[in-house]
Design brief:
single chain; alpha/beta; OB fold (Dihydrolipoamide Acetyltransferase, E2P); Rossmann fold; 4 domains; 7-stranded parallel beta sheet; 6-stranded parallel beta sheet; 14% strand; globular
């Protein structure tokens, strides 16, 4: 006999001997399911048999002794059909208990109505039960004065399963002694449930298929992004409360989170706060002592708790007038399976109108019924290789963990899935790109030496490596697809000039696209100085195309690009307009690539068959994020600054010392320098207590720096207005620029020596580092002054980190850990489903997923192997229509 079945038989025999009291295993028969399931899979027991056991016994403890006997009898009968060596167990299948044939109609109907899983006790109305709210601001808003009774719950049959039906297919096939109406109904229900239990989970079904959730509740849940059963199943807890520590009252300590089992002795309700609220006071005891338990403004609890009733209570132990108390604890009757107490309790993201208990009940029903039926996209061999648990097990344990270790394993599996699917999509994009062919752009060593000799400075070691990477890429007949990452002032433009020069040497055209007109102008000015000396490009072969370019000039540039007389163009989004056509575009350079959407980058690529692509960013990106999000790109990092560049001195100032910052700016202006003052808001707001650019501009220009020229820049201005202000500042017509975050990227004002950042605590590290990069671009010493909203924020961890280092990569790693990946992604991941479980700081997980994705892609790039069909479907679901165009 199979070893797992032998062990199962041992448990069942013991249950029979104990008269089905659920005592064969300490804590109940369901406690053995997870280790037994693992043993069953390792022993080779087929999945249908394993799932049948797990599904039948998951809620064994909730059944009556008679129903437990019937459940075990049906399970053993079913297994006996597939395994001839199963021996009958006395008390089952012809043993001591009644068989299906011996039950009368009412008994058969009772057996059929046993819950297959713990079913959500939903209110008969459409609305979630709002009365059980714990008056916690993040737990929803209470809107009812009474808790519904159990009899009011909706018992409609839903699409994905009967609300209160126990699957019992074996008895459905046995003759019933008396074909009463109740027996016939029970038989029909069992037949329907059998088909439902064996079908894959209907993850795309709307939430209204759940009994008790109508259109109104569905609309409320949509605020949380929940529209289907799959959404609900992947609605993971945001934290867990550990109420698994069961203690007696005499062993309680102040401040600990515990669970007690006690008997209600006294219940009373009294008004407080001049009758505006009601306090429910309950005294409980457990033989070792008594404890006072209180609930604020939840009077229905007094009607639910009766003296002499055994209850389970969980919360943090508080203190009142020198005595230990429980305040607003979770509670449940002792005879129920504990969802809210005596376990590791999940706490879900909520919205107004949805309570914690209601959400927990809904999830418990959905998880128990659907999770075992979710197909596992990973084949068994891959699951073993990756050392992860099964997907059904992960979904069950992440919602209702049996222990911290099981929770950790579940979270690891779900995080691995997210990274693995992302990496598969990235590998597919990389393979698609590498399958293309294009013109190889090669130059000899003499050309490289001439280019470097023509530079106004000696390249750093990091720049030389970047030049070598680019030269190697361009010399191949496969299109270059490289990300050039370098901190502010690291010399990325030199690498772009090198690539453009090689393209010109090989007779193809180049285009550089920048996000703003002023940044495009800066690039054009720099590149026209670097290029002619070594490349032979004439001045009239290099053009600048902006939205503000006069129409006659635009037409001349478009004509030159079409006939090949314009060999290199710098522009903004104007390059993407349909009339712009190239004769032979061989190289596309995209600066600050995260500022461009997927469609914009694709439009630039569409101007040629398969141009070489170089994308550049001055935003330092952590290695883990580069591996994940930019895994389809080859990566070059310029991680050293040119010699002679001075680090920017950074200081945090208290708001009360703002006048010192103004005095410092005054001193810099007297030396002929310029200054930035950056604010978090455009205009003042009653909701947000932070300084705003428009308001402060008037104050600064009229009362503080009245003898200097002050300009204003913010995102609500028209593009031509922004350009006018920036040109005036660049040309020295303005001494101070008051701005919002629109100056974050690409503004090169060498004469600016000080930047003051107001409300600095409101910005992430990467953004603060970009602001700081607006200064320090020339030989004179520059300064960055950070002023938070209030004195308490002067010890802000991010601000202290800014004082400590100028290393953008170190700050990026810290920012990723603190704030998540949002600041880095831009629009790049618009095609990929949201990352819910994985942490983009977990380099080991990312590399593990990347390694397995590369191995799989090498063996089966199309995922056409039958064992990979579920995985292929998961990849398609995870990636949107833009899955083939990431960079």
């Amino acid at each position: 006999m199979n070893s797992a079945l032998e062990k199962l038989a041992k448990y069942i025999r013991l249950e029979v001997d104990r008269k089905f009291d659920n005592g064969a295993v300490v804590g109940g028969l369901s406690r053995m399911l997870d280790p037994w399931e693992e043993e069953a899979r390792h022993s080779g027991l087929p999945d249908p048999a394993t799932s049948a056991v797990v599904d039948r016994l998951r809620d064994y403890g909730r059944l009556t002794p008679r129903a437990r006997q019937e459940t075990l009898q049906g399970l053993w009968t079913r297994l006996g059909r597939s395994y001839d060596d199963l021996e009958p167990i006395p008390g089952l299948a012809g043993g001591d208990g009644p068989s299906g044939a011996e039950m009368d109609g009412d008994q058969a109907a009772e057996a059929a109505s046993i819950p297959e899983t713990t079913h959500v006790e939903q209110p008969a109305t459409d609305e979630p039960d709002q009365a059980e709210d714990e008056l916690d601001s993040d737990e929803g808003e209470p809107s009812a004065d009474d808790e519904p009774e159990a009899e009011d719950f909706d018992e409609d049959v839903d699409e994905y399963g009967e609300g209160e039906v126990q699957e019992d297919e074996d008895h459905a096939e046995e003759p019933v002694a008396e074909a009463t109406p109740a027996a016939r109904r029970a038989s029909a229900v069992r037949q329907a449930v059998r088909a439902d239990a064996e079908a894959p989970a209907a993850l795309d079904a709307p939430l209204t298929t759940i009994s008790g959730i109508g259109p109104k509740s569905a609309k409320t849940l949509k605020k949380l992004g929940l529209e289907t059963l799959g959404d609900l199943l992947w609605h993971f807890p945001r934290r867990y409360d550990d109420y698994s520590q069961l203690k007696t009252i005499n062993r309680l300590w102040y401040g600990e989170e515990v669970t007690i089992i006690a008997t209600v002795e006294q219940v009373k309700v009294r008004p407080i706060r001049s009758g505006k609220m009601k306090l429910t006071e309950v005294t409980v005891s457990d033989g070792t002592g008594t404890l006072r338990v209180t609930w604020f403004n939840q009077p229905w609890i007094a009607r639910s708790l009766k003296p002499g009733q055994a209850v389970v209570l969980s919360s943090k132990i508080d203190q009142y007038l020198g005595k230990l108390v429980m305040t607003n604890p979770e509670w449940e009757p002792l005879e129920r399976e504990q969802l809210h107490t005596n376990r590791i309790v999940p706490v879900y993201p909520l919205t107004a109108g949805v309570t914690a208990k209601w959400m927990r009940k809904v999830l418990h029903s959905v998880v128990n019924r659907l999770a075992p039926r979710v197909p596992d996209m990973l084949p068994d061999e891959m699951r073993r290789s990756a050392d992860v648990v099964s997907l059904p097990q992960a979904l069950q344990q992440v919602h209702f963990p049996d222990g911290w270790e099981q929770l950790k394993q579940a979270q690891h599996r779900l995080a691995f899935d997210e990274m693995f699917l992302l990496q598969l999509g990235v590998q597919r994009q990389k393979a698609t790109w590498e399958a293309l062919e294009t013109k190889a752009l090669a130059v000899d060593d003499d050309w490289v030496e001439r280019f470097q000799a023509g530079l106004p400075f000696e390249p750093t070691a990091a720049q030389r490596q970047a030049l070598a990477d680019a030269r190697s890429d361009l010399a191949r007949a496969k299109p270059m697809n490289r990300l050039l990452e370098g901190d502010v002032g690291s010399g990325k433009t030199v690498i772009a000039a090198f690539c453009i020069g090689i393209a010109a040497e090989n007779g193809v055209q180049s285009a550089l696209m920048a996000p703003t007109s002023i940044l495009a102008e800066q690039h054009f000015a720099t590149l026209t100085q670097l290029l002619p000396a070594s490349t032979g490009l004439a001045a009239d072969e290099m053009r600048l195309l902006l939205g503000a370019t006069p129409e006659a000039d635009k037409e001349a540039i478009r004509q030159g690009l079409a006939d090949g007389s314009v060999r290199f163009v710098v522009g903004t989004h104007a390059l993407l307009e349909d009339p712009v056509q190239f004769q032979a575009l061989g190289l596309a350079v995209v600066d600050e690539q995260h500022r461009f959407g997927v469609d914009q980058r694709a439009a630039l690529r569409s101007k040629a068959e398969a141009p070489h692509l170089l994308v550049m960013t001055a935003t330092p990106i952590p290695r883990s994020l580069a591996l994940t999000i930019y895994g389809d790109l080859d990566l070059t990092i310029i991680d050293e600054l040119p010699p002679g560049r001075r680090p920017v001195e950074t200081r945090v100032l208290s708001p009360v010392n703002r006048s010192r910052a103004y005095s410092f700016i005054q001193g810099q202006l007297e030396q002929g320098r310029q200054a930035f003052i950056i604010y978090p808001l455009v205009e003042g707001s009653e909701k947000v207590q932070a300084k705003a650019a428009v308001d402060e501009y008037e104050e600064l220009s009229e009362k503080v720096f009245f003898d200097h020229q002050v300009g204003l820049l913010h995102g609500r201005m028209r593009p031509d207005e922004k350009d006018t202000v920036m040109h005036a500042f660049r040309d020295g017509e303005l001494d101070i620029l008051v701005s919002t975050s629109v100056v974050e990227v690409g503004v090169d004002i060498p004469n600016a020596s000080v930047v003051v950042i107001e409300g600095a605590n409101r910005f992430g590290l990467s953004q603060l580092h970009q602001f700081r990069g607006r200064v320090g671009r020339a030989e004179h010493q520059s300064y960055c002054l950070l002023i938070p909203d209030n004195d308490q924020e002067t010890d802000n961890e991010r601000l202290k980190a800014m004082e400590a280092t100028n290393d953008g990569f170190a700050l990026a790693e810290k920012d990723l850990a603190q704030r998540g990946p949002g600041d880095f992604l831009g629009t790049r991941q618009s095609g990929f489903a949201e990352i819910r479980m994985a942490r983009l700081t977990d380099v080991r997980l990312i590399e593990k997923a990347r390694r397995h994705a590369q191995d799989l892609f090498a063996k089966d790039p199309d995922l056409s192997d039958p064992s990979h069909h579920s995985l292929a479907a998961a990849v398609e679901r995870a990636w949107s229509e833009h899955k083939g165009e990431l960079s």
